[in-house]
Write a structure and sequence with these properties.
The protein has 135 residues and is mainly beta. Helices cover 7% and strands 39% of the residues. A hairpin with a 5-residue loop joins strand 6 and strand 7. It binds manganese (II) ion.
């Protein structure tokens, strides 16, 4: 396999996703719509430096990291670097954020779990002074 094949995204970039809860450009390609399977799944791509606000999911969330380098942080814990192949299991109602590293695009597949429990509770933006300290 060539290097080019290794970095070619498997799923489409999708459309620019307009949201007040992200601080930069983010693209979304729905892969599994909200249907009887009850497990909405999307390919999400963050431009370098783009992250989302603190938030929580009433039913939890799974992130499957596929491209680039990013970060995930739960409130009260150190931020954890994300690379392709990493799987993040986010429990219900845990306050967290995720997104790209300052200098890298980042793509993860987002799986919304247990959505019968409710939606996403969006909160304040991440302190960019803290984000900018991340290596
Ligand atoms: Mn989340």
């Amino acid at each position: 396999m060539s290097n080019e094949q290794l970095v070619t995204p498997v799923f489409p970039l999708g459309e620019l996703f307009e949201s007040p809860y992200f601080n930069g450009d983010v693209y979304r390609q729905p892969l599994v719509p909200q249907n009887d399977l009850n497990c909405p799944t999307s390919n999400i791509t963050f431009a370098p430096g783009c992250i989302n606000n603190w938030h929580s999911h009433a039913g939890g969330q799974i992130l499957l990291c596929t491209n680039g380098r990013g970060w995930y942080q739960e409130e009260g814990k150190a931020a954890q670097e994300l690379n392709p192949g990493d799987v993040v299991q986010i429990p219900a109602d845990i306050k967290h954020w995720h997104g790209a590293a300052k200098d890298s695009w980042f793509t993860h597949i987002s799986i919304s779990t247990n959505i019968q429990a409710g939606g996403t509770d969006w909160m304040e933006p991440v302190d960019l002074e803290e984000y900018n300290k991340l290596a």
